[in-house]
Specification:
alpha/beta, seven-stranded parallel β-sheet, four-stranded mixed β-sheet, 13 helices, about 20% strand
Length: about 280
């Protein structure tokens, strides 16, 4: 016999509480955010922050609960409240055009910047004045894939828990420490004190990425600073870096977008560090 959904009205208090997390002020007040789709929910179930389970509540259509029975079962086992909901209810909570039937509510999981510094990271991505949530999430995903040990979002950057940023990270948000709201000057100062070389990525940089690799200067601990999508890095941020590096354009393209440039830079550092034995291999599982 088919199972009937438990929540069939968007007027339910539980649904209303979830729906409001699409807005930044409510996310900040409740310190909760939405994670949509099976990949994000699976990673949320597996993640524990400060000894506490990250996923606190899960909404699922009957079809999704059957299709992703392992995820729903793991969520229940981890202590999350699981609600079967009508498709229209899931659509009301979701911020996507085509919901995948699973929406989780998660606790904030950002890491204090001082804790990141104490870990003596070898590779860090710093997002300075990055405003587009899709770009922020994609850079976070690139940093995770390249084996970076932390990401820092400055105080002028987009909200880490914006639903579009969470989706664009494709689960990487749950994989590595992320500090938020750090003034760019403090981020650079703290990383330098921790022995990390600061490279600012800029299309008009004085130094060429190929030259940096050829000269063997990228094997040590490195933080890449990436700027705003439209205007890049302001001069007051550029002067804080140890070097301002451009990704060489060998073809006729005018430039690279932020996420693509970040992937190139982070993987270049990862390769240099692997060659020098400076950090773990990005191919390790």
């Amino acid at each position: 016999m088919p199972v009937a959904p438990e929540l069939i009205s968007s007027r339910s208090p539980r649904v209303a509480a979830a729906r409001r997390l699409a807005r930044r002020n409510f996310r900040g007040k409740d310190r909760l955010f939405l994670a949509e789709g099976p990949q994000a929910v699976r990673e949320a179930v597996a993640h524990r922050g400060g000894g506490t389970d990250t996923l606190v509540e899960l909404f699922a259509t009957v079809e999704a609960a059957e299709r992703y029975a392992d995820i729903v079962g793991d969520a229940r086992d981890a202590g999350a409240r699981v609600h079967l909901a009508a498709e229209e209810v899931i659509a009301d909570i979701s911020t996507t055009v085509t919901p995948q039937g699973l929406v989780g509510i998660c606790r904030f999981l950002d890491t204090p910047f001082e804790e990141i510094l104490r870990a003596r990271p070898k590779l860090v991505a710093v997002l300075a004045h990055v405003r587009d949530p899709g770009n922020a999430g994609t850079v976070l995903r690139c940093a995770d894939a390249a084996g970076a040990e932390a990401v820092v979002l400055t105080d002028a950057s987009v909200d880490l828990y914006n639903p579009k940023a969470v989706r664009a990270s494709v689960g990487s948000l749950f994989h590595l420490p992320v500090a938020v709201g750090v003034p760019v000057e403090r981020a650079v100062e703290g990383l330098k004190e921790a022995g990390v070389r600061i490279l600012a990525a800029d299309g008009a940089g004085e130094d060429d990425l190929d030259d940096e690799l050829d000269n063997g200067t990228m094997g040590g601990p490195t933080a890449w600073v990436f700027g705003n999508e439209a205007w890049g890095l302001p001069e007051e941020t550029r002067v804080l870096a140890d070097a301002v590096v451009r990704v060489p354009i060998h073809g006729k393209a005018e430039s690279l977008n932020l996420a693509t440039a970040a992937a190139v830079c982070l993987y270049a550092s990862a390769r240099a560090q692997r060659a020098s034995g400076g950090c773990r291999s990005v191919t390790e599982s």
